[in-house]
Specification:
Chain lengths: 240, 240
DNA sequence: CGGACAATTGAAGCCGGTCAAAACTGGTGG
DNA sequence: CCACCAGTTTTGACCGGCTTCAATTGTCCG
């Protein structure tokens, strides 16, 4: 069973990491750090690097990914405006376990290790929110993990499209959400080859579930995509 | 690339969750709760259940798993002596996102929500250790995730065997570690069918990498298993 | 307008899932 | 102590979903 539905929903809560914190703490965190603009494709930090702070996404979108020995890239997660990057490594006092790159031009505020840990050590509000956020991240991650392990590519793609629709909604209540992701990124996220991905998108399109352009996907039949994701297991409709 | 090698290594650190804490805090946590014995197969908590506390493994081994709509079981993680269970849901204030069952007869100490959160709110030492633990868990989880997504079953199995060898070592320095897991559990952990798993074990056995009994696996050629896991990608040996 | 990169289509083959059946194991009671 | 039974492991055969390789088409910018 799925813990969060629709998938990716928990991000709304994740974004509130700083919400409810005393304004002076938020200020301290965000005002000191320099904001830097990363263009599409630019890398914010690399797997294996030593963390010197955390990054706050002021605007834009980034992908967290891991590069395998064979050169393949597995996308772990997509982060959007308001989310924090790189704190796992800082908390665990290890090197980065994954890399992060901008998917679109993004404004990223750097918060130094000293500042972040300093505020954290003095603020139980922040550490509580962080603990809660990490707990939430886990349930979402476990869903993705189980999906990967037990579902076929078609179902995973449908699942990811639903998740991405939430990510790319950007707060807007628009019906039409453009998932702006290259076919390669979509494939690397779904854990499949780009050729397979393209073929499945074509099928979905022919079934009138989605619209596609060369660099985006838009869901036009949400229920249909949910059906493809097959959350309930294959069974006679109406029958338990 | 792999962040933790050998895989599963970070458990050593995870076990130290309570280490370094003031003795009275540890005492408070562990002395109040009732210890219950779970026999093999018994369920400690179920996905979807409302958490009322956390569980500390005094002895034994448990599996964290998720059941899919089609009835398949995906094992997320194996926990051993000294590890804590069920805190993710408590921290995120959500229902359990997975289930936990005993793999062998296990003594589990229940710590009530009030006690745990009470100590947590007053102890920055505990919350710091918890944050660190969660950060560590992430990097391990990301490794597993990437493995699942980018490697074939043979490589994943080898990876899991190496990880499980650490889990089942139980502190002993013995060379011979028996991985006591049913074929089905091993398959559910690797994300494959039990028939495929059995065939691969047979191959490994024929290559003299492992020994098997009907309910355990033992690595006898560690280097060989590492080679099967193919951490470095297929390439001419010696060549970069 | 051209050139580089991304997306798409086609064809071939294998990895791994599924179904079915046989062999084996451990535990139980006669 | 042995025969039996239920559950698990193992083996066999089949085939379909995906990957891979190769080639074509499409798209975006300088």
């Amino acid at each position: 069973m799925l813990t969060n539905f629709p998938p990716g929903n928990s991000r709304l809560k994740a974004k509130q990491l700083f919400e409810g914190l005393p304004p002076e703490e938020i200020n301290k965190l965000l005002s000191e750090g320099a904001t830097h603009v990363f263009r599409k494709g630019e890398i914010i930090f690399r797997e294996g690097g030593i963390p010197t702070g955390v990054f706050h996404i002021k605007s834009g979108k980034v992908k967290k990914y891991k590069t395998t020995a064979t050169g393949a890239e597995q996308i772990i997660y997509i982060c959007a405006e308001g989310e924090l990057l790189g704190y796992h490594a800082l908390l665990s006092e290890e090197r980065y376990s994954d890399s992060t790159a901008a998917l679109v031009t993004s404004e990223i505020t750097f918060i130094s290790k000293e500042t972040f840990l300093g505020v954290l050590s003095r603020s139980s509000a922040l550490s509580n929110r962080l603990l809660k956020l990490l707990g939430l991240e886990f349930s979402g991650f476990i869903d993705s993990f189980t999906n990967l392990a037990t579902k076929n590519v078609r179902e995973r793609l449908a699942f990811n499209l639903l998740m991405l629709e939430e990510k790319f909604r950007d707060g807007k209540k628009t019906d039409a959400v453009d998932i702006m992701l290259s076919r390669t990124d979509l494939a690397n996220m779904t854990g499949t080859a780009k050729e397979t991905l393209v073929r499945l998108l074509k099928e979905f399109k022919q079934k009138n579930l989605i619209q596609t352009t060369s660099n985006s996907v838009r869901i036009i039949d949400r229920e249909g995509v949910i059906a493809e994701a097959n959350f309930m297991g294959k069974q006679t409709p109406g029958k338990k």
